[in-house]
């Protein structure tokens, strides 16, 4: 009886708190609506009433005062920014490039247009100034030039007034020489893509491919779904004509767009769509009212849409005998939804291309609750998307272990550092050797002096280069960086670099000022290159009032959760485990239209979504398809894999050459071995996630490295029984 009375008292207390909370929310909403009305009546900061064209023209004139390209060594990393572009230098494996971005500190927005270069070996940042460079911008897109491998191409982006009341979208097109760091504005013939931001670029042969993005006007977003292709040899843009009935991606921004050996692949994205609040599934996030206070039969609202579909853009170049300026044939082909895709779906997840895979990090999933507040889950998970197999694989960091391989009685688990360390120890040496072979291999007719079937990795008689200077030691963690969205990713020499990103904290977009590095081959930790304190946020009076209300609400919520937790513990007698693979946050949005809904697909995506999900689930259970190619073994390095299968890969290469009407005899032995290694390396990376899982399973079971008796016999090894017993 006493327990029942106690519960009744708590229930009445909760109802009183909820009524008080509802009253505060109504008061808060009324205050914000009055503030918004005063702004619409012209009571705004004079700094926001600016002529953006005049501002940009003044910036352009200031830019022209630089008479030459200069490179300045910085004492610290570049200023913090978001929505910048980050890319590995395609002509220098020791450099990363960073351009543009913006920073909003709560009062004013600043935009940047400096080019920064990070020298990996020196841990050194340099600033590049140029007399001819793109004007300040953010949310632009750039990519390497495909066949034009020495260049990076950049298109579009946005700029705004200090208070972000007026936006300007760029439609200019730029080319960066990655060797000299010189910018050139590309003047094209004929039509060109309209201005936009939030779009993506990728490359295929001599083409630069552009898709999507949005244009923002006062209080409205127009999402784009057009395709544009730039020919770097004929210097012309064109938009291919697609059949009206052809299935194609819905307009969107913030998607993944990666190169493919027959075109490009697209996955995911974000857009805002109009839905009827009472229309079932499409209207599940129906928390907003119309201006009149009700919904009405035909009222619609705008909600955020997270896309989860996948498309392949097939690009067929014109035949060799086609007339000058002939256009490629382009068509969209819808793919099944990727198997094992991140769940829940997320937007703002960054992805970088690496060896036929997309490396994905972070993202945010929003749950719309009220007109002003949105619950968000931020992620810091790492995935590899195998493009050809259309499957996601989670990537986890491994704990470093002591190398006990040489110690008597060392256990199988303790040998991890030894086996994996040995597997990686000669990777750089192998790649240097291949570079030497390629450089020395020129000439045809098979006229090399090395006719061994297996590559001579050690290259006897050649002197090793001088030892490089000792590199700076960085802190290494076995945890991935803090959860965030819209981080900048780049991959250089099989190392993933994560730069910056955004996370909500107390209703504010907090920009991370940090950079990390992860070796994708070893996954042996996350290296912290730098990590600076978060920038200060300048609060307005409205925000101060909101913070007080939020603090009171949070305090009320915490009391309710404590009461609920006590009841659950009393009833169940167990403590709940609330650990999650993400960081939850409750944030307020400037406008209702900007909040993302839980919807996972557009109506066109939902047609056969269930069938695709079932097919993906069935596919997920299948073993790796045997493609007839040599397969790497657990704990086998790229070097060991190629040495074991070198003859097979050379035969495969020569067969492929003959199919292309190229006689293998026209290549030297060294060229054949170098190209054969490239094929074996592609296969090694293609199987990396499955092989890593097998390695972990074997180590968990205490199984050591698997070596066949035939290989041991060929290697002249003895004492196999003793080795197996250990």
Automatic annotation (TrEMBL):
Native species: Podospora pseudopauciseta
PANTHER family associated with the record: KELCH DOMAIN-CONTAINING PROTEIN, KELCH DOMAIN-CONTAINING PROTEIN 4
Biased composition (Acidic residues): 448-467, 538-572
UniProt domain DUF4110: residue ranges: 625-714
Superkingdom per UniProt: Eukaryota
Protein name per UniProt: Kelch repeat-containing protein 3
Gene that this sequence comes from: KEL3
Classification via SUPFAM superfamilies: Kelch motif
Record region (Disordered): 1-49, 396-474, 534-640
Pfam families according to UniProt: DUF4110, Kelch_KLHDC2_KLHL20_DRC7
InterPro entries: DUF4110, Kelch-typ_b-propeller, Kelch_domain_protein
Biased composition (Basic and acidic residues): 9-29, 628-640
């Amino acid at each position: 009886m006493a327990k029942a009375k106690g519960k009744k008292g708590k229930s009445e207390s909760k109802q009183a708190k909820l009524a008080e909370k509802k009253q505060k929310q109504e008061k808060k909403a009324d205050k914000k609506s009055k503030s918004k009305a005063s702004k619409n009546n012209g009571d705004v900061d004079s700094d926001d009433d600016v002529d953006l064209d005049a501002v940009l023209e003044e910036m352009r004139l200031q830019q022209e005062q630089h008479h030459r390209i200069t490179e300045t060594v910085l004492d610290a990393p570049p200023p913090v920014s978001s929505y910048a572009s980050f890319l590995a230098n395609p002509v220098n494996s020791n450099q990363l490039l960073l351009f543009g971005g913006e920073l909003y500190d709560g009062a004013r927005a600043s935009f940047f247009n400096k080019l920064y270069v990070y020298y990996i070996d020196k841990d050194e940042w340099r600033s590049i100034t140029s007399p001819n460079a793109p004007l300040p911008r953010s949310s632009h897109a750039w990519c390497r030039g495909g066949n034009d491998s020495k260049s990076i191409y950049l298109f579009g982006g946005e700029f705004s007034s200090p208070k972000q009341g007026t936006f300007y979208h760029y439609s200019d097109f730029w080319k960066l020489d990655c060797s000299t760091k010189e910018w050139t504005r590309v003047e094209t013939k004929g039509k060109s893509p309209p201005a936009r931001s939030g779009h993506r670029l990728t490359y295929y042969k001599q083409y630069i491919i552009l898709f999507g993005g949005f244009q923002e006007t006062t209080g409205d977003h127009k999402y784009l779904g057009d395709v544009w292709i730039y020919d770097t040899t004929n210097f012309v843009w064109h938009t291919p004509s697609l059949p009206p009935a052809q299935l194609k991606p819905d307009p969107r921004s913030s998607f993944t767009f990666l190169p493919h050996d027959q075109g490009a692949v697209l996955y995911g994205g974000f857009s805002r769509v109009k839905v009827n609040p009472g229309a079932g599934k499409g209207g599940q996030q129906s928390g907003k009212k119309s201006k009149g206070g009700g919904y009405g039969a035909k009222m619609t609202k705008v909600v955020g849409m997270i896309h989860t579909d996948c498309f392949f853009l097939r690009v067929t170049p014109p035949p060799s005998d086609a007339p000058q300026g002939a256009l490629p044939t382009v068509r969209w082909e819808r793919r099944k939804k990727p198997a094992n895709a991140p769940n829940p779906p997320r937007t703002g997840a960054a992805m970088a291309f690496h060896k036929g895979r997309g490396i994905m990090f972070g993202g945010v999933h929003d749950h719309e609750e009220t007109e002003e507040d949105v619950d968000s889950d931020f992620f810091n998970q790492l995935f590899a998307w195998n493009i050809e197999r259309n499957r996601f694989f989670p990537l986890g960091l491994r704990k470093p272990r002591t190398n006990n391989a040489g110690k008597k009685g060392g256990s199988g688990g303790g040998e991890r550092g030894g086996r994996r360390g040995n597997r990686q120890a000669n990777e750089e040496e192998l790649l240097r050797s291949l570079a030497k072979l390629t450089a020395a291999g020129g000439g045809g007719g098979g006229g090399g002096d090395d006719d061994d079937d297996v590559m001579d990795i050690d290259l006897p008689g050649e002197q090793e280069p001088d030892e490089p200077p000792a590199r700076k030691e960085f802190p290494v963690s076995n945890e991935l960086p803090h959860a965030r969205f819209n981080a900048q990713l780049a991959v250089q020499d099989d190392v993933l670099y994560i730069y910056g990103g955004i996370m909500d904290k107390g209703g504010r977009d907090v920009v991370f000022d940090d950079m990390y590095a992860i070796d994708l081959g070893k996954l042996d930790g996350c290296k912290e290159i730098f990590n600076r304190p978060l920038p200060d946020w300048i609060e307005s009076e409205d925000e101060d009032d909101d913070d007080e209300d939020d603090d009171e609400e949070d305090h009320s919520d915490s009391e309710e959760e404590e009461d609920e937790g006590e009841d659950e513990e009393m009833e169940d007698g167990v403590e709940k485990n609330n650990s999650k693979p993400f960081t939850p946050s409750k944030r307020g949005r400037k406008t209702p239209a900007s909040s993302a809904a839980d919807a996972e697909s557009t109506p066109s995506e939902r047609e056969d979504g269930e069938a695709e999900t079932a097919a993906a689930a069935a596919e997920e259970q299948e073993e790796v398809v045997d493609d007839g190619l040599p397969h790497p073994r657990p704990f086998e390095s790229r070097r060991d894999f190629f040495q074991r299968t070198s003859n097979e890969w050379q035969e495969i290469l020569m067969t492929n050459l003959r199919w292309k009407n190229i006689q293998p005899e026209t290549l030297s032995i060294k060229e054949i071995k170098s190209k054969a290694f490239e094929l074996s390396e592609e296969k090694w990376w293609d199987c990396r996630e499955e092989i890593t899982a097998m390695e972990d399973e074997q180590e968990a079971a205490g199984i050591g490295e698997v070596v066949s008796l035939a290989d041991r016999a060929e290697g002249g090894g003895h004492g196999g029984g003793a080795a197996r017993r250990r």
